[in-house]
Design a protein that fits this description.
Layout lengths: L13 H4 L18 H5 L3 H11 L17 H10 L4 E2 L10 H4 L7 H22 L10 H22 L7 H10 L15 H4 L7 H18 L14 H21 L1 H9 L17 H16 L8 H4 L13 E6 L2 H5 L8 H5 L21 E2 L1 H6 L19 H8 L7 H4 L20 H4 L3 E6 H16 L1 H15 L14 H15 L6 H7 L36 H6 L21
Antiparallel strand pairs: 1-3, 2-4
């Protein structure tokens, strides 16, 4: 149901445009200081393009930026680096080590980069919304739907990163309680927010944030109801809206199943007068949330997308760098984006791809570079032998073996055998430079990166259905996905889980395998409150990264710190505790 109040106004809010974030913006934009009249006459298509374009905004290391900065694509790497799924041995050029080591993750540059970049993205969305007709039947509907989708994604990410969750570390959890921050997400800034309001803009409680995001998605769904195909996958389609709703409903279902008090709080605030501008959530049980997660995941699937085939997955020219039938939404890095920078090594391809000769991940020798990301050893050992995805990573039994390279790995890499044999066991060869170009960075760095793949919807549907219709029904969907799309010819997959806990563990395992390197499972670690464990006998994680968080809690380092500058400029905000060095290093040996 769409709130009719959104239909009837053309909003011009020039006061916001020089502020955008609650008050801590430092970058400069063309709209800073623009009048409402100037914005009204602006080309809306340019404002729309600016949203996706901003995803690639970055600060060069030599100009004072962080070495890891490659725009939003770096956030994908950061999220996986925080989990147990990304392992590294040679740490000399690991520019993503802060969270791995629990160092400098309080009031330091990295957390501020996340905070500012997301709010600048929100500003881009607000700029377009402020000059658009919000009527879903109006001329601006496609622009509005796209801006609302990006804004919903941004707030969903911010809320899930910055809401402080219990860690099992007594002093952190007690400090959070003393500050009164449990259940608080982030400040909401819309196209209507004035600069004065932004100076005293408190963190929204979770129930308000859910309402706000869902309201954006409801209007986006109405605006994009006929947008079944888009000319560029940087723009949101109706399938993207369905996918975002599936993610949000799954998050709510998991929360309300675990914390009934939160469900009751949500219900008790449905009639709040100050929330009347937002559509009501309209649920009374966690299972209703799971049912809607499954419903919207299936709606996304029914839009005609299909999972990657084995040949697409391993294509050394276009695999995981080119939009295809599996991708609903993408971050596309153009040659123009590359030309605007001078740091060829400061790129998604450099950090992720062992084939890029200009990159950090490429093997040079055991001291210089050789930073190729590895899959966690315990996770690799759990991959079914008949699962063709397993050769995405180098099996310890195959490392250096020429016959194994020829029969298993050569199809999925641009490396020669003499190059491939230098890489360690477990190193991933999932990513490739654009068109397989290994030597010219201006060509090879211009890749596309998936923000949403249809495989995620299949797995959301299976997990949610297990909650609403029983584990057997969830197992049936998971087995169907695996046997139809991920098992080699003649192989069969059977889910052996006998209860919900075991099924959730198995489904999460498949999600970790499917989305390794895509920044997806960070959200699931937090949603399911699963431990991140890098210290264990046989671990392939660097010794200084072997921290194990506590079961039934989130890892402290996954709770993002709100930068002090936000508090200085916005008196309404209360900060999170600094999670640095909260967990002791695992002292066991291999």
């Amino acid at each position: 149901m769409i709130n009719m109040k959104h239909y009837l106004k053309l909003i011009i809010s020039a006061g916001l445009l020089g502020v955008a974030m609650t008050s801590c913006l430092e970058e400069t934009f063309p709209t800073d200081g623009a009048t409402s009249g100037q914005l009204e006459s602006a080309d809306k298509s340019a404002f729309n393009a600016a949203i996706a374009s901003y995803m690639n905004n970055m600060s060069l290391y030599g100009d004072g930026g962080d070495a890891s900065d490659a725009g939003f694509s770096s956030f994908i790497i950061w999220r996986d680096a925080m989990t147990a799924d990304f392992a590294i041995v040679n740490t000399g050029y690991d520019y993503f080590s802060y969270y791995n080591q629990q160092l400098y993750i309080g009031n330091d540059g990295i957390s501020a980069t996340f905070w500012q970049r997301y709010y600048y993205l929100i500003q881009k969305c607000n700029n377009l919304l402020s000059i658009s007709d919000l009527d879903p039947d109006g001329f601006d509907a496609l622009y509005v739907g796209n801006a609302l989708s990006y804004r919903a994604m941004a707030y969903m990410d911010l809320a899930r990163m910055f809401e402080f969750k219990r860690t099992g570390v007594a002093y952190l959890d007690e400090e959070a309680a003393n500050r009164g921050i449990y259940g608080l997400t982030v400040p909401i800034v819309t196209e209507n927010t004035t600069e004065r309001e932004s100076r005293d803009n408190p963190r929204a409680p979770f129930y308000k944030m859910y309402r706000f995001i869902m309201d954006d998605l409801n209007l986006a769904e109405a605006c994009l109801s006929d947008a079944h195909a888009v000319s560029a996958k940087t723009d949101a389609s109706i399938g993207v809206v369905y996918g975002l709703k599936a993610r949000l409903w799954l998050d709510m279902g998991s929360r309300f199943e675990r914390y009934v008090d939160d469900l009751n709080t949500m219900i008790s605030h449905e009639a709040d007068e100050d929330l009347n501008d937002y559509d009501k959530i309209g649920i009374t049980t966690a299972n209703e949330c799971f049912a809607r997660a499954a419903e919207y995941a299936r709606k996304a699937i029914n839009e005609g997308y299909s999972p990657l085939s084995e040949s697409q997955w391993f294509d050394p020219s276009s695999g995981f760098n080119t939009p295809n039938n599996s991708w609903l939404w993408a971050n596309i890095i153009s040659t123009n984006d590359i030309a605007a920078t001078t740091g060829e090594w400061q790129s998604f391809v450099s950090f992720q791809c062992v084939e890029a000769n200009w990159g950090i991940a490429v093997y040079q020798d055991e001291i210089n570079y050789a930073h190729g990301w590895m899959i966690d050893a315990r996770l690799f050992d759990k991959i079914d032998e008949g699962d063709w995805r397993k050769t995405t990573w180098i099996d310890p039994e195959d490392a250096g073996a020429s016959n194994a390279f020829i029969t298993k790995y050569s199809r999925g890499t641009n490396l020669s055998y003499n190059e491939w044999r230098n890489y360690r066991s477990y190193v991933g060869i999932k990513y490739h430079p654009a068109n397989g170009e290994r030597n010219t960075s201006t060509i090879g760095n211009a890749v596309s990166i998936p923000l949403m793949r249809i495989e995620e919807m299949f797995l959301i549907e299976a997990e949610a259905t297990a909650h609403t219709s029983g584990v057997g029904a969830g197992k049936q969907l998971l087995e169907s996905f695996m046997n139809t799309y991920r098992m080699s010819a003649g192989e069969s997959y059977t889910c052996k889980a006998a209860d919900m806990e075991a099924f959730t563990d198995e489904l999460f395992k498949q999600k970790r395998v499917e989305f390794w390197g895509e920044g997806i499972v960070y959200w699931d670690y937090r949603r399911l409150e699963l431990p991140i464990e890098r210290g264990y006998p046989g671990s392939n994680h660097a010794r200084q990264y072997r921290f194990n968080s506590y079961p039934e809690h989130v890892a402290p380092w996954t709770n993002f710190y709100i930068p002090d500058r936000e508090r200085d400029l916005n008196k309404g905000v209360i900060l999170n505790p600094d999670p640095s060095q909260a967990i002791p290093l695992w002292e066991g040996g291999n």
